[in-house]
Amino acid sequence: MSYLGIVNLISFILFFLLGAIMAHFALFAVVGIFKRTTYPRTEKINKFGIIIPARNEESVVAGLIDSVRKNNYPQDKLQIFVIAHNCTDRTAEIARAHGATVYEYSNPKENTMGYAFKYLFSCIERDYGTQTFDGFFLFNADNILDANYIARMNDAFEHYGREAVITSFRNSKNFGSNLISGLYGMYFAVGCRLESRGRTALGCSTRVQGTGYLINSKVVAKGWPYVSLTEDWEFTADQILFDNNIRFCDDAVFYDEQPTSIRIMWRQRVRWSRGHLLVFYARFKDLFSSLFKKKTKHRVSLYDITAFILPSSLILIVIQILQLVLLLMAPLIDSSVTLHDVFIGNSANLFTSMGLLFIWAKSAILSFAVMLLTAIVVFIIERKRIKGVSFGRKVLIALMWPVFLFIQLPIDVQAFFSRNLGWKPIPHSDQTTFEHVNPAAEEAAQS
Q1: Maximum Cα–Cα distance for the chain, whole Å?
Q2: Strand partners, 245
Q3: Which residue range forms the structural domain that includes residue 126?
């Protein structure tokens, strides 16, 4: 076999191995399209603490508090806690006026959301005792809840004997505001429908996506230890590492405000990516070694999260750079090979008939088509939940969805070299209310 053939064969094997590691995600997606896990209604009414971290959220925090108060769940079983974290506005004042128990905490050096959780849970333990609650809901201040959100999460919580972490469907308040918010909305819809739903249907632990999840109070019996840039990733990795299940409740829907500018989008995704890398550095060794321990119970879930925290885009870039370097050396090793053969190709044999540019272009086109089809499918199967988006906007979102995913490559590269990103607040101003996302509740109130 020629030098070019050897290089391309090695590259093919590396790409194939990377794809094989991630192949099970396709199974989750297919199952998520067709199968849905439902939970029987329970008569058990658990007592929950509602955890709301807020950093200069005076324009939206009241909306979340009101949506909790208007939920179809006994209010004497709910207590709302707001942690006004490094605030310089009226967040604490407004939250108190709407009936929340508010704690204020300022420390510029501790500026991630995890530190807000850590401080708040220490206050709850001191003043109430965390174990006086059956569980805690963790939200962001800009969230709005469906009218039956807490009841449906309680059903799932009881179904798993109050032992599993329960996460929920993350919809968007401003899906149709502009292209950026629409792409974010698609991102979370894909994550819920094609990842979490399939995982739960197959009995595999899923992951929490930032907010909108319920934990047993035992999880925070010794406090909240997750303070990295992406505490949700860190939390997910540890729960699965410790053989704790994370399940998805498709019937529980909450609404989140998405960024609407490229600048905010890029900054946030770099932070997510950096946090992802930090979790990889901190947890990969333990996760990987646990795959081979006899006492490991949820091996499939463990494999899944181990594969998920891999910096796959950076690995892909390294493989492509290695392939390029080796191919550029071809004329030096084999005088009969030219750069034209390397980049454009010839018909000499199976491995050299296609040049590097042709192979990369073919892969990019195929990836684009798959991603485009994914967006179209999600718009169809989630048409009842994706509202306020015109047909033209849906077409544009679907066409740009592959681009939204492709730019993860430069984002991951920037994140790899970034340091001290911190938790910078995302501006929230959308005034969607409980009545907007629950029109039936508004009609009932008017009647």
Answers
A1: 86
A2: none
A3: 37-308
